[in-house]
């Protein structure tokens, strides 16, 4: 059984609960490993106050290093920070899977990656508020998790709302390897 590498971008204030829940869902198959990276490779403090030492820095990460890029939410996305990660997101989109949770979906909207594909998030007005050039409102879907063209968006409310079925979200994430095997295995 092949293991798939997940690269997670962590930064001061990142939503560690979002990363934890996504990795819990993925690890139900036992096929995923996690490597973390921060902009400079230094310890960061999550939104809950957890100090996390990343495996490496952004300058050492390329799309060839991982199968899945994970972008957890955090206030920095709403402040317009984390711009250093944009080139990696652009280089990854279309070649590897990109998973954005909560406010991290703003990075995808800001780059225009959500303008023509189904996606989810807080609501269309949320994207327009922080990304004035966002044109994806017609493709917005009020779903906990949407997968389209190698981009996975997750509404953070789905992770904390007991009315949402976490098992359905977990099952959706587990289908990643089956539904996107050509992105994981370039030989396909």
Overview of this structure, please?
- This protein has 188 residues and is an alpha/beta fold.
- It has a single domain, classed as Rossmann fold (3-Layer(aba) Sandwich), CATH 3.40.50.
- The protein is 31% helix and 19% strand.
- It has nine helices and nine strands.
- The strands form two sheets. Strands 5-2-1-6-7-9-8 form a seven-stranded mixed beta sheet. A two-stranded antiparallel ribbon has the order 3-4.
- Strand 3 and strand 4 form a beta hairpin.
- Helix 1 crosses helix 7.
- The chain is globular and about 40 Å long.
- The protein starts with a strand and ends with a helix.
- The C terminus is likely disordered.
- This is Glutamine amidotransferase.
- Keywords: Glutamine amidotransferase.
- InterPro entries: Class_I_gatase-like, DJ-1/PfpI.
- Pfam families: DJ-1_PfpI.
Summed up, what is this model?
The protein has 188 residues and is α/β, with parallel strands linked by helices. It has helices spanning 16-27, 75-78, 86-92, 105-110, 124-130, 156-160, 166-174, 176-179, 181-184; strands at residues 4-9, 32-38, 44-45, 51-52, 56-57, 68-71, 97-101, 145-148, 151-154.
Q: Give the count of structural domains.
A: 1
Shape-level CATH architecture: 3-Layer(aba) Sandwich
Strand content: 15-25%
Oligomerization: single chain
Helix tally? 9
Radius of gyration: 15 Å
CATH class: Alpha Beta
CATH superfamily: Class I glutamine amidotransferase (GATase) domain
Largest sheet: 7 strands, mixed
CATH fold-level label: Rossmann fold
Q: Which geometry do the CA atoms define?
A: globular
Q: Count all strands and give the number.
A: 9
* Uncertain spans: 183-188
Q: Helicity level, as a percent range?
A: 25-40%
Protein name: Glutamine amidotransferase
InterPro entries: Class_I_gatase-like, DJ-1/PfpI
Organism: Puia dinghuensis
Keywords: Glutamine amidotransferase
């Amino acid at each position: 059984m092949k293991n798939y590498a997940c690269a997670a971008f962590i930064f001061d204030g990142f939503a560690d609960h979002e990363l934890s829940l996504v990795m819990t869902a993925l690890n139900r198959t036992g096929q995923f490993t996690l490597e973390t990276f921060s902009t400079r490779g230094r310890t960061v403090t999550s939104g809950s106050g957890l100090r996390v030492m990343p495996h490496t820095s952004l300058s050492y990460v390329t799309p060839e290093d991982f199968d899945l890029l994970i972008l957890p939410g955090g206030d920095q996305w709403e402040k317009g920070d984390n711009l250093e990660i944009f080139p990696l997101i652009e280089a990854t989109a279309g070649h590897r899977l990109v998973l954005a949770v909560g406010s991290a979906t703003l990075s995808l909207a800001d780059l225009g990656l959500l303008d023509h594909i189904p996606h989810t998030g807080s609501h269309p007005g949320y994207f327009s508020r922080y990304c004035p050039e966002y044109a994806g409102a017609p493709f917005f879907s009020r779903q906990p998790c949407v997968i389209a063209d190698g981009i996975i968006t997750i509404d953070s409310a789905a992770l904390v709302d007991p009315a949402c079925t976490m098992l359905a979200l977990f099952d959706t994430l587990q289908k990643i390897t089956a539904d996107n095997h050509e992105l994981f295995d370039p030989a396909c």
